[in-house]
Amino acid sequence: MSDLAPLVSLRGICKSFPPVVANDEVDFELRAGEIHALLGENGAGKSTLLSILAGLYRPDAGELHVAGRACRLTSPRQARRLGIGMVHQHFLQADRLTVLDNLLLGVPDLPLLVRKSRLVRRIDEVAQRHGLQVPLAEPVGTLPVGERQKVELLRVLLQEARVLVLDEPTAVLSRPETESLFAMLRSFAAGGGGVIFISHKLDEVLELADRVTVLRRGRNAGTFPGAGLDAAELARRMVGHGVPPVRREPPGEQPAAEEVVRLEEVTVRGPRGETQLAGLNLSLRAGELLGIAGVAGSGQRALAELLAGLVLPHAGRLLLAGQVQSRWSPRRARAAGVALVPEDRLGQGLAPSLTVAENLILTERDRFTRWGILCRTRIREHAQERIAGEQIACRGPTARAGTLSGGNLQKLILARELERPPRLLIAAYPCRGLDLQAAERVRAALLRTARQGAAVLLISEDLDELLRLADRIGVLYAGRLLACRPTATLSREGLGLLLGGREGPS
Amino acid sequence: MTCGSLLTLLLAAAVSAGTPILLAGLGELIAEKAGVLNLGVEGMMLVGALTAFAVAAATGSPWAGATAAAVVTGVFALLHALPVVLLGVDPVVSGLALVLLGSGLSASFGRPFIGQPATAFSDLPLPGLSGLPGIGPVLFTHDPLVTLGLLLVPGVALWLRSTRPGLLLRICGENPQLADAQGHPVLWYRIGATVAGGVLAGLGGAALSLAETPSWVDGLAAGRGWIALALVVFAGWSPWRLLLGAWLFGGLVAVGFRAQAFGLDLPTYGLKLLPYLATLLVLVFASTGRLRRHLGAPAALGRPYSRERRE
Amino acid sequence: MSWRLEPRAEPGLLVEAGWLVLAVLVAVLAGALLFAGAGAPPLAALGLLVTEPFGSGYGLAETLVRTVPLACCGLAVAFARQANLWNIGAEGQLMIGALGASWLPLAGPPLPEAGQWPLLLLAGALSGACWGGIAALLRAFRGVNEILSTLMLNYVGISLVEGLVHGPWKGADGFPYTDFFGPGWRLPLLTGRVHAGLLGVIALAVVLHLLLARTRLGLELRVVGAAPETARTSGIPVRTRLVLALTLGGAFAGLAGALEVAGVEGRLHGGLAQGVGYTAILVAFLARGNLLAVLPTALALAALTVGGDGVQMAYPGVSAATVLVFQGLLLLLVLLGGRLAGFRLRRSPGGGRP
């Protein structure tokens, strides 16, 4: 295979999910025998590009060539037949079925009557060749993530894929697991195959990739040979050169404010027993805005839900104003002045089929009730006032919340959560999906809340935003808080390194 | 009557009375394994029972009756399958509509058949097996539909576990994205499974009107369709446990209907309650924590599937 | 080029109404075919469906009498739907309500005549609440699917009544119904057979509508139904609200049973419910979550049963169950229409998938 006929080449790929443009005229090329990294911030369009390659999405425009032949991918089956095998970030597996059943799905020309013993031999052989032994009889959902990934890889390899596509394959792996994965990928590429992988871990990109393509805001921001790049350079290319960050005025020397919330060695486990937060220590003072950065799925959700009373710590202590909270619940959290701007606005923050006016009083029901009866006039006036004050675009207090646009949904939630100054505000990705103006309003509201004396925890994937707003920034990495430093001591590059799990120069 | 022969009689009656529930339950199990919830079992059983009765009466052959019941009920199930699978209509409402339609249609068209003698299946003892002491008269001396049920349990279990379509069907119910990503037609599998559920519910109905209570009255199924639904939950979606449940409930029904015949003096209406009360208990039992986690429902049960929907 | 269905953001009122009308028209057409198939002239039979329930004083009274239990049970279903629960058990709750109500005159302590029928209604509602409460507790604390549990309780409830009227409560003439209750247990009549329960159920619908729209409890119930996670983050006790929704639903269906006993039948028997509890699901579905709308939809379906009886009288070929078929079709078609209103047909470039 020569460089002249790349294994895969994409030209001018466009794909939008109105109103979001996920891919905008993206060119991409994978050569035989190469390992090609795809790099970019969250929302840069990497996953969309890979899904197009896997036949899951059809591009709005653009061309695709596989082994030099133009083709139109209309289904995953077709992609598979062309030798493209996808390993999804959130493993696409049937959790309750056994490893064997999940693998059988990948066997081409699976006979009508499955004689398992014969297929087990075939699977074992492929597993041996690539060093991917897995317990076949266990339900996939019970395996540790590293094993689950092996299952995923094994399934793709059983399909005799020529191109391996991996979406953040190392995000969940330990170092030894990562190393064995790399060894496997290298030998695969050496055999003439091609590998495309997405990663946020810069070290690993440098360690593994022959070439690196950077995506920024849906566009290709350049393809570079892996040799000769360093981590700082990569981080810079990834986050771009945007406007120099406007920082919040550094606070002068002030007496230490009262501590609002404190987490001591807190561990939170998910429904299947997986660790979501591990030994977390955190302290947040009144008037302080703490930013939390991290690649998706590093424990942000668990942190927000823990503070809002939705999940309980499995170990460790949660202190509010110095008081240990042993019986923590959403009601207690609300009563203690905790406000929540959740990541899932329609599912966790609002009741879409209820009116704007009703949604505005969800958390303050008692204030608008007398003898159990809602005070309609006050609720309406309150709604009109908040709609005008926050410039919520809607047909009026009786409009259903579900009919509002994303930006207005967020204004609605903020109008409710910030109406009375909270003691602790948890805001999870509050500007995600908002246009510039709406996002600026949200940011101003966050700053104002902190200035009024609340402790604010801002979870975000936008580094500019964190650098502008936060007094301190902590980075979550695989359920651990890596660093929690004053913003003045951090740079974008430094943060980029931390996001990738590397303590860098600051 | 000796104690032993009484027991044999009772057990045989339990196996026979459990067959309609077993067949309908197997059908629902297949549909649910593919991810489609169909609450219309009761209606489908009624349609099947009437079709079987009418066609058997017209042709003089219970075999023709059972075949017709399977075909007609399979088509009837499409009324649920197409809107639910293709359009993502609420399966609960659609299933309830199926119950209304099934009871209405069967009662409308069944009027001339009330009080008519059935062209029933006669017992077809299995050569060799029926002579076995104890187990022979209990399991192998029944009408052909009982035998069909006995064959279908290992059949369905094997089919689901060890065939390509069985594996894909299970994956459609567990993770349709996965099946789709591997290029398999999720929607067709789901429609097919629902129709198969209809076919088996129809045969369950036929087992009622041609064998278990060979006659036709309005609402002949008397809640057996709903019990079948509950048993699928109880069985943790396993055909073998479903068989066990069906025999248990068949036993309760048999005791209820035949207490007097067996010379037992028990309050009739109390006995008629038994299957329903037992179903409630079984539901409570099957819903408790540990068991539920162990044997839970297919992960994508009742959830519509369509591609290109972000999030 | 190919055509494909695409979801649309928010269907306009006109689109929804259009699909609804279309669904009803198709159902009527199917009904005409059913009549024709049973040997009745379809147009005349369809006409009877309208003139029978509304064309005469007797017919109108009959329609109103049948509206009462349908509306009550419709409220029982629709109220539980507010919390996103399916109460399929109105049939059994009605029977148990009737049983509890009948216990007072049959076996209860002696009471002054003036308080007799109000207490009877209360007893009915309480018994129905208990019946619904079983399913409610099982759902909230055990996770037992309320569709299956309420349904099983239907059969249990009906069998209990059957057992009583065939046994200890059997009437003096030896038939399976109780003796008639004394005049103090009977509801006052408004006109003809129409009893005061009609006013009661109208009042109940209004009160419940206000409860949902204007009280904190109502708001909380609706949040639990619309977005349980939001309810949780807002500090609403989700489980107790679930229990309340289904228990109160049971109370309304139980009240329906008591009203039938005290207002229409004057005694208890096993055939009291006659599928009212199932038709009530259709009543609630057509009312689309609006408790006031339950009154007109209950009236419409009551008229349908009266009209169906009329058609059946006039044309002996038509079976009583035709009404059931029609109801099933209506449910399926309205469901389908409501769903299709959420789509639009689009031309798409490239090979489209359906």
Characterise the protein shown here.
Chain A is an alpha/beta fold and 506 residues long. Helices cover 32% and strands 25% of the residues of chain A. Chain A contains 17 helices and 22 strands. In chain A, strand 14 (315-320) and strand 15 form a beta hairpin. In chain A, helix 8 packs across helix 17 (492-499) and helix 14 (406-417) packs parallel to helix 15. The radius of gyration of chain A is 25 Å and the shape is globular. Residues 242-247 of chain A have low confidence and may be disordered. With 311 residues, chain B is mainly alpha-helical. Helix content of chain B is 71%, strand content 0%. The N and C termini of chain B lie far apart (67 Å). The relative contact order of chain B is 0.21. Chain C has 354 residues and is mainly alpha-helical. In chain C, 69% of the residues lie in helices and 5% in strands. Chain C has a two-stranded antiparallel ribbon. A two-stranded antiparallel sheet of chain C has the order 2-3. The longest helix of chain C is centred in the C-terminal third of the chain and has 28 residues, at 238-265. Chain C is globular. Chain C starts with a strand and ends in a 6-residue tail after the last strand.
Strand order, largest beta sheet of chain A:
6-7-8-3-9-10
Give the low-pLDDT segments of chain A: 242-247
Structure classification of chain C: mainly alpha
The percentage helix of chain C is: 55-70%
> What pattern of helices and strands is seen along the backbone of chain C?
EHHHHHHEEHHHHHHHE
Give me the number of helical elements of chain A: 17
| Structural class category of chain A | alpha/beta
Biggest sheet strand line-up of chain C:
1-4
The assembly state of the depicted protein chains is heterotrimer
- Rounded mean pLDDT of chain A is 83
Describe the secondary structure blueprint for this structure.
The complex is a heterotrimer of chains A (506), B (311) and C (354).
Chain A: E1 8-17, E2 20-30, E3 35-39, H1 46-53, E4 61-66, E5 69-70, H2 76-81, E6 84-87, H3 99-104, H4 116-130, H5 145-158, E7 163-167, H6 175-190, E8 194-198, H7 202-208, E9 211-216, E10 219-225, H8 231-239, E11 259-269, E12 275-285, E13 289-293, H9 300-307, E14 315-320, E15 323-324, H10 330-335, E16 338-341, H11 345-349, H12 356-360, E17 369-370, E18 373-374, H13 376-389, H14 406-417, E19 424-428, H15 436-451, E20 455-459, H16 463-469, E21 472-477, E22 480-486, H17 492-499
Parallel strand pairs in A: 3-8, 3-9, 6-7, 7-8, 13-20, 13-21, 16-19, 19-20
Antiparallel strand pairs in A: 1-2, 1-4, 4-5, 9-10, 11-12, 11-14, 14-15, 17-18, 21-22
Helix pairs in contact in A: 8-17, 14-15
Chain B: H1 3-33, H2 41-59, H3 62-87, H4 91-110, H5 135-139, H6 144-162, H7 164-174, H8 176-181, H9 186-212, H10 224-234, H11 239-258, H12 268-286, H13 289-295
Helix pairs in contact in B: 1-6, 1-9, 1-10, 1-11, 2-3, 2-4, 2-9, 2-10, 3-4, 3-9, 6-7, 6-11, 7-9, 10-11, 10-12, 11-12
Chain C: E1 2-7, H1 13-37, H2 42-54, H3 57-82, H4 90-107, H5 116-142, H6 146-166, E2 189-191, E3 194-195, H7 197-214, H8 216-226, H9 228-233, H10 238-265, H11 276-287, H12 294-314, H13 322-340, E4 343-348
Helix pairs in contact in C: 1-2, 1-13, 2-3, 2-12, 3-7, 3-10, 3-11, 3-12, 4-5, 4-6, 4-10, 4-11, 5-6, 5-10, 7-8, 8-10, 11-12
